[in-house]
Each structure stands twice: as structure tokens, then as C-alpha cells.
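Hi L., both proteins are below.
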Amino acid sequence: MTNLRKKLPPLTALTAFEAAARLASFTRAAAELGVTQAAVSRQIQVLEEDFGFPLFRRLHRRIELTEKGRLLATATGDAFGLIADTVAELRAERRDDELAISATISFSHFWLLPRIAVFSRAFPDVKLRIITQDAMASIDADEVDLAIRYGTGIWPDGHAELLFEDDIFPICSAEYAQSHDPIRTPQDLIAHPLISSDIGDPTWTGWDEWLAAFSIKAPKKGRGLRCSFYSEAIYAAMNGQGIALGWHRLVADLLQQNRLVRLTDASIRTRAAYFVVVPARKRSKDSVRQFIEWLRSVSLQPLVQSDP
């Protein structure tokens, strides 16, 4: 170990070099490491003085690795990557009894949480942690074991398995439906407040697309409430604010409970689907396999049908 220490330059300097080489910037490396740009520059100088040759070319407003700098960058990148992967595996072993699941707010509230007790009863030794956020969590990070996502199934950070597609139709509260004239066709909808949600996902279906499927142009200035999240749109509909688009998998329980009712028999199929995604580079735990098998079985169960 003593000989190894003598062969290696200071670890702090290597860390600064790896970040600067990867980011091609002393400034960005400093921001990532939480130090000043001058501190990063000084650490690079320490290495260059130790080696006796330059590792970077200092050009106008940019830096560029020298040939020897590229060799060192490849070595440090591979070495640091191996250390990071090993540390992640060791941490995963330390928390093997915990299963961290990432899901969107709407999927978590309306589908996962109402059903999760069934899984807990079947696997009481698995400690669950639900990470709920609409921003897509990276499953390469140590804190996520699997994610449930809506989309095309193509994500660079993991392997995706199809859970289910969905159908979309208009919904509102029972009180709202009873207090207005019957709504029998898609054309009848545009006379009512249409509740929308500002979803950035291009595969998500909004009112414009849904109505266009029936050759109906959505009103330019609708009276409906605009919400930041789909879950808010559903709660607004339950509170009688107007009509929202119901994704059958998400609102099936609310339809069964009569907290929402379906309007018209018109429906369209989603362009994307729900997937369970597991990390591409992380060792899978037994609890991940158990949860995925449970998801498969639950997703095959028939949905409650609600007459329009």
C-alpha cells in the first residue's frame, strides 16, 4: 500500500483532473466539485508539475486535452467509474430489505397506493419506499430500484417492460353530471368547462388531440381550469369544476366508488403505455423481481367497466 501511494499522484488532484477532462472546462468542473475555478486550475498544475508535462492546452476560452492528457483521462474515467459501480453495489447490499419505487404523482395516488397493501401482505419482509415526483427520476442513481413510467418504453438508463396501455374518455363528478343537460356526444362537451393539465410529455393526450379524434376543434378560449399536474385535474373534476379526461387505469377505482362518472361512450387509445423500468447497470434484488411479478399479475386483472 505504501508503494502504491508513492506511485499515485494526490487523489484530490486526480479528482479535479477527471472532472475537468470529462466536462472540458475548469469552470464546470469547479461547479460540480463545489470549489472555485482557481482551485481546480491549481490542482491541474499540481499534476502537470508532478508529471513534468502539460495535460491540457489552454486555448482562447476553452481547454483541450493533450495526447498524454487523453491517456490519463481514459484511465481516471474507467477507474472512477469502477469505484462508483462497486460503491453502488455495496450500498445496495446494505439496504437489500428496502425496495425504492419511483412513480409519477398521478400513478402513485390513483393506481399504486390503493393497491400496494396487497403486495405488502404477500411480501411482509420487503420494506417499501415510494418516490413520487412528476420529474423523471434517474434510476441510475443509487436511491431508485425501479420506476413506473408512461411513454414509449425507450429510456437510456434502464430496461423497460410493458405493463399496459390505456383508454381515455371524459369524466366528471356525479353531481356535475346530474346538474347539467345530458352529455351524450363529444360535440356536447365543448359547451362545458374542460379541465386540462400542463403535461410536458409529447406522448400525453390533451383535449385538443382527444377532440380532434372525433373531428371536433377545441375552443380557443375554453372556460375550463388549467392545472399543473394531472392529479390536480382529477381532483378538480371530483370537486365539480368541470370535465376532465379520464385515463381508465388511473380512474377505475374512482368510477367504481362513484366519485367520478364517465360521460359518453367515446374513447381513444393512448399513443404510449405504462412500463416498469429497471436500471441497466445495477444488480437486481429479489424484491425487484417479486414486485415486477406482482405488477404483472395486477395489470392482467380486468378493469371495472362504467356505463356512460
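That was the first. Here is the second:
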Amino acid sequence: EEREAERRAQAAAEAPEKQQPVPEEIGERRELPIAALEDFPAELHKFHPASRERLEGLKDSIRANGIISPLIVRPLDADRYQIIAGHNRRTAARELGYDTVPVIVKRYLTDGEAIRLKNDDNLMQRDGMLSSERGWAYRQNMEEINRQGKRTDLTLSQFATKLDSAAEIGKKVHKSRDQIFRYIRLTYLIPELLDLVDKKQLGLTVGENLSYLTVDNQETVYLFCFTGEKPVKLTEAVAKTLREIQDDPDRIIDADTLEELTAKHTRTRMRS
């Protein structure tokens, strides 16, 4: 028996190493007709279609290399599929005359899971994302993480849960927890102010501070600072002061307050 055991051990040592099976990618790779693909519902996400310039660049890439990253879809019925990620790739391929595109079919996804998958794909694939798009992607991902019950240990407060969710998101996109929260705060701006952040006419930290104001106070700020003949520049210091004024029950944010506040900070900057 000892000799037999030695023989087996020697045979095993001399045999070539057995290759471990590689796990199959979750999802089924297929080639599908473009005509069978439907858009993801616009009300469930905040991403804008690519600009014409970016779309032309994508078409040049497809001409040279083909579609490197398959679209991600989920089935609607036997013959129809919904695009989760890859709308711009689909559009570029269609304009180039493609009839079919490579896809990965993901089955049994909830809307929340599909939204998170779409956000992750865009965060990884897209350059030059708008601040609003990034903020909404982070916010939706955080809501989905918390909804699924992750980080819900009873020893953690609700705030700690959000912190851990933000850290998880930040790790994927190489941003700090604070940066994740800063972008998420932008989603609480009224559309007019959020559009100014996207256009870089309003700073990111200024927008973050203004997001803590009530809707009525944000509208007052927007009307005073950005609808006149000459826009009034808002600084981070002014925005922080507005937050303090809102918390003071004896003060209000109106045109007189804004005129005094912005004039004061303008004089301070000129002296310095």
C-alpha cells in the first residue's frame, strides 16, 4: 500500500498541471438585430445622448476597430430587448449601416439593478460626463445599494450606512467619499441651477452649498443672480453665508439680502 501511494504521488507530480475552469461571464453573448432593440426608459435615468462630435468620434472608432464593448440588454419578450447600456454605440452602428450588434443579455434584472448596471457602464465608458449625470448616477447607485440591504448591520446608524455606500461607489470610480457626496448634493438643485453647474457657470462647491437651500430660496437666488442684464457672480463664501441665513429664523433670503451680500463680497475681493 505504501508503494502504491508513492507511485500515485509521483504520477501526480509528473502530470501536467490541470487548468482550472474559468467562470463563464454572467450573461449570454449574442448578435442581435438593431431593429429588435428598444431604448431604456428616459424617466429612469439622467444620461443625455452623445453630442454629434462625440458620436462622430465613436463612429470613427467603430470603423477602425468594430464594436469592442458589447451592448448590455435585457429581454422584454421573445423578440424584443431593452438596451441597458450602449445607446450611443447602437446609434453609431446604425448610422454606419450595421444591421446587427454584439450584446450581452442579462436576464431577471429588476429596474433598480438595471439602472445601477447602466450607471456603472456609463461611469466606466464615458469621458466628459456632465456633473448632473455623475451626481444622478451616484445617487441612484447609493439608493439601490441601500435598498438591497447592504451595509445594514444593526450596529451602524443610517448615516454610517450611507457613508459605507459612498465609499463603495467611490472605490469603483477612484473618488473619495466626500467627492461622491458633493456630486450627489447637486441633484437637489433646481433644474436651472443644475444646468449652470453643467455649463460650468456655477462652481461645483457653490452648487453643493446652494443645494441645501429650499426650493423657494434657490429660485430667489437664480432670479436675482442669473436673469438680469448682467449675471451676478456667486462665490463659495456667499453660498455658505446663504446657508447660514436660511438657518437663522430672524433673517430671510430676498433680493435686498442678495444685493447686500454679493456687493459686500465683491468689495472684499477688490480690497484683497
